[in-house]
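Residues and backbone
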Amino acid sequence: MKLLDQLNRKIGRYAIRNLMLYIIVLNVAAFIFLYTAPELGGKLALNPYLIRQGEIWRLITFVAYPPSSSPLFLAFALYLYYMIGNTLENQWGSFKFNVYYLLGVLGIIASAFISNSVIGSAFYLNLSLFLAFARLYPDFTLRIFFILLVKMKWLAWFNWALFGLQLIQGSAADRAAIIATLLNYFIFFGKDIVTNTKSASTGYYRKKAYQSNMKSVHKEYHHKCTVCGRTELDDKDLEFRYCSKCHGYHEYCMDHLHDHVHIKGDDQV
């Protein structure tokens, strides 16, 4: 992405390094906060109505809302988020990762205001990180609950299927959140997806054409005109006859049966 490269050269030094570490710290702090005062959990949610009333901190605090109230599952989820985020940052660089995360945040905020719905966590935002990781490292194997080994690409396909189901059956808020989740993903990977799709399509048709040609090459004919070389494979309606005046066995199509030079014993065809 040329625009990102240009921005990186100009303002890349302002990028937040180890961004995911700060997000994890915020999640842990929010977990402790909610553990001691669970009734205040609503104060962190992204609520468009209350934001319009002046509670602008909600534009940020929804990112810190912990993904689980279970300490064990929270530890697993935060470890996974950190691993994914840190890997993406190492792959892209801090600036590009910051932009990807920021686009996800802005997309979710926009979806909340468009659908006028309350978003209580960064679930869809974190899912966009997961999809980016699966796109870059499809064969990475994840041990779910420390037991089941699953490749990232299969988990990604499962999530895509859930997206499709929610787009069909979900509410307007669900649809808006999903579209927002995919916004940063397609901005970053859309060009590659289109290019790969075109290449795969071209490769498929080339393969089919090659297979068709090979079938034609390997098909055996039973009749062939000595003059023009046509066979029954060229035209199923062609008729062939042997010439009794030619030396040896020489077959001709009806166009040349009576219009050819007869082959003598010392002639070569």
